[in-house]
Model the fold of this input.
Amino acid sequence: MTVSISGTDGVTFNDSSVQTTAATGFGMKNRIINGGMDIAQRGTSFTSGANNDDAYVLDRFYILSDGNDIVDVTQTTTVPTGAKFSIGLDVETVNKKFGIAQIIENANCFDAIGGNVTVSFQAKVSATTNLDNVKCAIVAWSGTADTVTSDIISAWGAEGTNPTLIANATYENTPANLNVTTSFATYSVTANVDTASTSNIILFIWSDVTTTSLGEFLYITNVQLEKGSTATSFDYRPIGTELALCQRYFQIVRNGIMLGNSAATIVVNSMLSPSMRATPSLSQQGVIQITNGSTDTTQSSNSLTFANGADNSLLYVMGNFSGLATNAAFGFRLGANTNGVTASAEL
Done:
């Protein structure tokens, strides 16, 4: 039996969402990863030194701000009904614009390019005395696919003036004040992604005011970008699925086959699971502790040299140990020392 629905106002569902066009089908409706701010592999709090302009914070999201240490960032439980976490942006340097952004990989947005997309999210501010102009932009990147300059701001501009974007970055909508209040509400914008040669889509949400006070907060959660001209209910994915999606771009490695290379160094072969977007860059969270099963040895300071790798495996050398036996087997000492090797393949 075929059921036909006609009219101009769309269909209203129990969650008050309205659908005016046919559903886009099953699969990855929400092209934003970690839109519920659930995954925080790098940590749950980012203060001076970790909250610089263009720095990644909660998974897949990075800060854009008019300078460094403009806002502290936390994974907070200040949330609307039905959400678990939000990202909290806490003013630390006054009178500066700030926001968050996410770059969508070409493989996850190519089918949306050339058509309408809609961004929706829930937000509130701690007070509207100053934070009274929050905006959202759908930005097209027309440079090489997945080779995106993440700091898309050329000049932040005066209060109320949309920031000037760098070359190859174009506003697809005309960002305007969303009139965010002190209570959580859902906000949405729609745009046709029609810039020639668009290869990636970037989400950008920011405070466009230059008069702020210390301790003022902007909270954002349930961020979604989907095909079509209508904002639908937030797509909650299983937490394991969300984590795996994040780990395509960033993961912490605490596994590997280790062999003593000298008294001070070990060679490590680590597997990446899931496979990453590309061969990642490596760094250490802190000094690493290793064990041979009976004796634990800790680095005196960080020392890591990348040797070879791919999107699913890594070969690297770690140094600044002492007393290691050549060709002896070691492993990460888990529990006593939680530091690991970070692998990043962010866009």
About this structure: The longest strand covers residues 217-227. The CA atoms of residues 254 and 340 lie 5 Å apart. The chain has two domains: 11-246, 248-344.
